[in-house]
Amino acid sequence: MKVTWESADAYELYMGRWSRLVAVQFLEWLDPADGLKWLDVGIGTGTLSDLILNKYKPAELYAIDQSESFIKTAQMRLRKDIQLQVGNAMDLPIDDDAVNITVSGLLLNLPPEPELALKEMVRVTANNGTIAAYVWDYSGGMEMLNYFWEAAVELNLMADLMHEGKRYDHCDKPALKQLFVDAGMTDIAVTSIEIIQQFADFDQFWDPFQAGQGTAPTYLLSQKESEQTALRDLVKTHLPIAEDGSIKLRARAWAIKGVVTKLAKEEPEAERAPADEGGSDD
C-alpha cells in the first residue's frame, strides 16, 4: 500500500502542527550559532525552516523535499531567502561540504535506506559541522497513532502490517544512536521531547485521519465505508475523552545530534627530484 504525502494542507492538519511544537524544543536543545549555512532535509510544509529563518539568522538556507506540493507550499509560506529544491534524501542535490549544519524533522523513518540518507547528509555537511534530526517515538510514545492502530488491528489483523509502531521500530534511542555511529559521527547526543496533543472534541481528533495523508490515514481510506465507520467507533470507545468532550494525548519524539568528522584529503605526492648520485668535487 503506497502511503500518500502530497497534500500540504492535509498534512499540516494531521501532523505538521504537532511537528512545530517539537521543532521549537528541538532547536532550543540544538542551540546553534547565528550565521551558519543550513540544510533542511524533508522540509514538509516549512515548520523547521520557518523557525530557523526567524530565530537563527542563517547565512544561507537550503531545503529539499520529495513532494513538489510541499515545496510549493513552503515557498509561499517562507521568505524568498531560502533555496528550495525537489529532491530525494538518499541523493541530495547539494554539493559536498556545502553547509555547516544539516537538520531533518520527521523524515529519518521514511527513506527505504535511512543509512544512505544519513550518509548523504554527512557528504554535504562540512567537517566539524552538525547533523541533527528528530522523529516520533512510534513504538512507545505516540498515543494518537497507538489508539488508531490498536483498534485497526482488533478489527483486521492485516492492519498490523501497516502499524507504524512496528514499521518504524528503528525510531528509538538505541537505533538512532547506532545509525549516527555507523555514519562516522562523533559527540553524539540523544534526548526525548514530549508534547501534549489537545483536541477540542473527537471530530477534531478524527477528521485529519480522513484527509489521506500519512500511513494511518492512507490505511483508513483503503477500507470500505462500513469498515471505516467501525474503526472510527472503536477508536472513540478507547480514547480518554474528558467530560467536556476534549482529548489530551501524549506524544514523544527522539532528537539526535552529532558532529561530522572527516579525514583530511591527502594531497597527491609531489614528484621528487632524483637524488644527486655524483660525489663531491672537493
Automatic annotation (TrEMBL):
It comes from Sedimenticola selenatireducens. GO terms for biological process: methylation. PANTHER family: 2-METHOXY-6-POLYPRENYL-1,4-BENZOQUINOL METHYLASE, MITOCHONDRIAL, METHYLTRANSFERASE. Coiled coil: none annotated. Residues 39-132 form the Methyltransferase type domain. This is Class I SAM-dependent methyltransferase. Keywords: Methyltransferase, Transferase. GO terms for molecular function: S-adenosylmethionine-dependent methyltransferase activity.
